[in-house]
Design a protein that fits this description.
Structural class of chain B: mainly beta
Helix content of chain A: under 10%
Shape of chain B: globular
Largest interface: A-B, 24 and 24 residues
Oligomer: heterodimer
Number of strands of chain A: 11
Order of helices and strands of chain A: EEEEEEEEEEE
Shape of chain A: globular
Strand content of chain B: over 45%
Largest sheet of chain B: 6 strands, mixed
Distance between the termini of chain B: 41 Å
Number of helices of chain A: 0
Largest sheet of chain A: 7 strands, mixed
Strand content of chain A: over 45%
Distance between the termini of chain A: 36 Å
Radius of gyration of chain A: 13 Å
Helix content of chain B: under 10%
Order of helices and strands of chain B: EEEEEEEEEEEE
């Protein structure tokens, strides 16, 4: 299994531009999570999906952020318009059915820099 | 509400000495507890978990953790530290009584092992 795959690995964009981050979870995992990591705020849960349905998006910082999961093998996190304070590492993670007893498998992350 | 506290931003130990990285948690139901490690420019990797059973759980790379219900703690330990253990360590908790899969992470503790 290739694990959780995120793309791109690095993204540098100008303020005001739209940014789309992509994630392919592990096949068979039915839960998908988007996290943001910064030095100041640590690891923050932005949103998570169960069976492609958003369950909790209370961590999404503002309306500029949106996430979709059109099918079990793909999710996107979009920032429009981007701002310098969005610079962070964004991680996607997935988990098996019956997520209680299982941890997450994380992707390698996307390092976003907004200039 | 769930929460996790890692009281130390950084732990410094000499190679060959035992190490402890502290974690306390708060959860309304049964705690499911996890430790993850993050190496530079990488995603988080699962180390070990406590769901039920023996309070001492063993994980990857010689790490272990002890669940203490009365103290609501789940400290990570290793009898003899290696320089290669230097990394960022995260404790996480999930409410086992809930049917959501959301893990809440602590702020992380940087472990520095000196030769």
């Amino acid at each position: 299994d290739a694990g959780v795959i995120q793309s791109p690995r690095h993204e540098v964009t100008e303020m005001g531009q739209e940014v789309t981050l992509r994630c392919k979870p592990i096949s068979g995992h039915n839960s998908l999570f988007w996290y943001r990591q910064t030095m100041m705020r640590g690891l923050e849960l932005l949103i998570y999906f169960n069976n492609n349905v958003p369950i909790d998006d209370s961590g999404m910082p503002e309306d500029r952020f949106s996430a979709k999961m059109p099918n079990a093998s793909f999710s996107t996190l979009k920032i429009q318009p981007s701002e310098p304070r969005d610079s962070a590492v964004y991680f996607c993670a997935s988990s098996t059915p019956g997520t209680g007893a299982y941890g997450y498998t994380f992707g390698s992350g996307t390092r976003l820099t907004v200039v | 509400a769930q929460s996790v506290a890692q009281p130390e931003d950084q732990v410094n130990v000499a190679e060959g000495n035992p190490l402890t990285v502290k974690c306390t948690y708060s959860v309304s139901g049964n705690p499911y507890l996890f430790w993850y490690v993050q190496y530079p420019n990488r995603g988080l990797q699962f180390l070990l978990k406590y769901i039920t059973g023996d309070n001492l759980v063993k994980g990857s790379y010689g790490f272990e953790a002890e669940f203490n219900k009365s103290q609501t703690s789940f400290h990570l330990k290793k009898p003899s530290a290696l320089v290669s253990d230097s990394a960022l360590y995260f404790c996480a908790v999930r409410d086992g009584s809930s049917n959501t899969g959301k893990l809440i992470f602590g702020q992380g503790t940087t472990l520095q092992v000196k030769p």
